[in-house]
Amino acid sequence: MAKSILVTGGTKGIGRAIIQKFAKEGFDVFTCSRHQDDLLALKTSLESDFPNQKIAVKVADLSKKEDVQAFANWVKNQSVPDVLVNNTGVFLPGSIHSEPEGNFETIMHTNLFSAYYLTRAFTEEMISRKSGHIFSIGSIAGLTAYANGGSYAISKWAMLGFTKCLREELKDFNIKVTSVLPGATYTDSWKGADIPEDRFMKIEDIAETVWATYSLSPYSVVEEIVIRPQLGDL
């Protein structure tokens, strides 16, 4: 029976690269996005490249609790994933004291609450079978404060704390938990910036790192991955 991976926000960037890597390794895929067209394009591409795997996609806005729960139930009716990657995120720049009203709520619901609710939806089954690997895609913004990070940085510090707590809660049930804390990675959010592309990390490097972490023996876990551009942070 094929193993499966659930990646939120899987149509672009790091999420898509992780899906591509795990699909190549024989995993069935579950993912979501707010945009139907992007999901269908991803599904068509993956089914062409990996015709023997299940590729299941669903429209969901994970900033909304009801959408998170509906998506989780939809997945659970088909499978309990072996790997869960909480990747959905939004970046809205601004300073805490002056960012637009509502930034905090939008970012926290999207970046943190979605991971909290989705993880809770699957942990009972993972505990019962005593297996699973949960990845949280955070950011070096969750390690180092910087100007104009605002609510985004707050959400990533909180995500790291959430993941640390989860690691302690689940380790006795043979469930691995890993924080992934990338620096500047070349995704759509950076396109158009006046910075050479070779100054960024590649999304494929993040995906390969996640795969290598997952592939360790049952006796070891990588708790935190900090990965930065070779020339340092931007």
TrEMBL record:
<dbReference type="InterPro" id="IPR020904">
    <property type="entry name" value="Sc_DH/Rdtase_CS"/>
</dbReference>
<dbReference type="Pfam" id="PF00106">
    <property type="entry name" value="adh_short"/>
</dbReference>
<comment type="similarity">
    <text>Belongs to the short-chain dehydrogenases/reductases (SDR) family.</text>
</comment>
<keyword id="KW-0560">Oxidoreductase</keyword>
<dbReference type="GO" id="GO:0016491">
    <property type="term" value="F:oxidoreductase activity"/>
</dbReference>
<dbReference type="InterPro" id="IPR036291">
    <property type="entry name" value="NAD(P)-bd_dom_sf"/>
</dbReference>
<dbReference type="InterPro" id="IPR002347">
    <property type="entry name" value="SDR_fam"/>
</dbReference>
<protein>
    <submittedName>
        <fullName>SDR family oxidoreductase</fullName>
        <ecNumber>1.-.-.-</ecNumber>
    </submittedName>
</protein>
